[in-house]
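Input.
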Amino acid sequence: MWFVRPFSGIIMFNLKKQSRFMVALIATTSIFLVGTANAADPLEESIKIEKNITRAAASTQKSVDKLADTTRDMAADYKLTMQRVDNLRSYNKQYEELIKSQEKEMASIQHQMSVIDDTERGVVPLMNDMIDTLEQFIELDVPFLLKERRGRIARLRKNMLRADLSNSEKYRQILEAYQIENQYGDYAEAYDGDISSGGTDITVTYYRFGRVAYVYQSLDEKTAAYWDNDTRSWKPLDDSYRIPVRNGIKIAKRLTNPDLVILPVPTAKPAGSAQ
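Output.
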């Protein structure tokens, strides 16, 4: 026998009743289980749908976040691009002003160059005339240091044909040559050299006192002469000038202290007279 204890007491069933109860219980349980199984399918489907929605929402959120980042980057790039455009506009404006200024400067330079070209066309002949004049002066002057002075004229003429020298440099060199010639008249000097005397070359000491007097004396002091520029020739000196000329040479070579020196000075009188 089976006993079931309900809330109201204990009920006893006989075997037949028990069998019927068991059948009913099994049928009821089967119906419940079938109902429960049928009810589980929509729930699982709902859970699946919910999961899918969650995954879709997460994916959508990622896409939204990515799009937001892209939008921010594009906004930053746009702002930077606009700044560059503003800077470029400002630079272009300044560059246009610079170009205008350069164009004015170029026009001024071209005008100056045309003026310079006209000036140079007049300067070149002038420089050649200056060289010619200096050369003539040297040939008519007292003939001291002729090799050096003629060599200077030759260099000036050669430089006039050089394309690598500007006209200003050529002109400077010509003026320098004039200054050197001018300075020769301001000081005394003495130097040794050779001279032809009676068909024989002898070594003498030349003594120049500015352009006032130009004499020479042999090393043995037996022969002396002065230059007469009027006759363009050497005139012999008597023995009375032997010591004065010697003293003048020593002073010029800084071998003795400066002192009064008596030298022959040509005059405008006929050649051959001396003082």
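Residues 1-17, 30-34, 271-275 have pLDDT under 50 and may be disordered.
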